[in-house]
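dude i think i finally got it to work??
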Amino acid sequence: MLLTLSPVPLFSYSPSPVSHIFVSGELDSLIARIEKRYGNMRGLAAEFEQSYSGAGVREKRERGRLFLQRPRKMRWEYEPKPGKLFVVNNREVWFYAPEDRVATRADASKISDARFPFLFLLGQKNLRREFREIAFASQDAGASGGIRTLRLVPKRKDTGIREIFLEVTNEGQITKIRQTDEANAVSEFSLTNVRENYIAPAEAFEFKPPQGVSVRRQK
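look at this
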């Protein structure tokens, strides 16, 4: 009767560590699947949708085709064709806008761009080496539809990126990347029709300005 009628608990309650251990183990398992999937991947092709929003800037949406290849190579083709082109290789970065008849060239080691985090996808076998914090995001629904959301905080301060959110399937496939920079601008990329281990021709990651196009050097 005392147990039934007592208005207060007879024993103090402390949260069980079991739930924390379960979440930690689930996180470690998902990180391992991401690393296994992308760690030995040589190349990737996909269609993308990109959005950008920032203070005082109207939201911008674009789409196109993306090619990634190890080591540190990217090609972004924007619609409609022929549209903007963004090409990265080990030496340089090119940005070309046909309507402006101008191509911008920069040193690959000196440029920061919202598209650069995609380079960590290929050949990444140790995410914790690149990020000082990896956790399930506060908005993560817990395997809702087979998708989990991770929040990653880069270790390096010179990236200009404050945090990255990854939407990941149970198989470790990344379907969406959202990142916030130090100015609170948000860039989001969704990937569809992904072809893993796709190897693009070598010339896809080189750029030769068309005749009549002026070249601007960015320092």
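The chain has one domain: 40-218.
im so relieved honestly
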